[in-house]
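G., the chain you wanted modeled:
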Amino acid sequence: MKSARGHGSGAFAYTLTEVLVVCAIIGILASMLMPSVTRTLQNGRRTRCAGGLRQVALIMSAYAHEHLNRYPQALANADGGAQEDNGIVPVSEGVMALHPGVFHAMADDFKTPQVLVCPVTKFWLHRVRDLAVTNMSYAINLHAEAGDASVPLMSDSTLSTRWRELGEFPRHGTNVEYRFTFERHQGLGNVVYGDCHVESRKRFTAERPARGPVRRRPGY
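Predicted structure as tokens:
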């Protein structure tokens, strides 16, 4: 590498070409490392999301244990549940719902409301009661069975299907396949099951029971 010694100073100087070459090499190395760094950050956030989702599932399991194996979405409001709200929240394929009422029913059981928020969203939740359809990180299975390891209980809300009213879906039972968008975890999503184990998947299947849809209550 060429260098030039200043008059009596003992300092070395680099030519403009040498500086540009070094900058180009640094840029190439950075571009090679960036995808790896980004992927590591995404994996870390997804892992934190999975941990939070499992904590929520454990709280829901404790609730079900105290309420004859019924989650809030299967228990009447008068009994401390949120069943009457099932028909007024956005639902996907008659199964997965953006249902803040489920968490409102268990508000006193959460030591930190932030566990209800996916880390990728960078949203701060001060109280469980502040949770609404517009800031839901997780979708609830309206037909989940307590303790069943094969039935999804909750998932990331970034499902690729349309959200509609529960009454718009057919009355026959069927298996519904869900996929996740790239909005949070690059096409992956976390799914927690009735036994509280969590899986990161590109898709999952949930059953729509063979019974009529829940109708809106008068006044809604």
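Confidence is low (pLDDT under 50) at residues 1-5, 212-220.

Shout if anything looks off.
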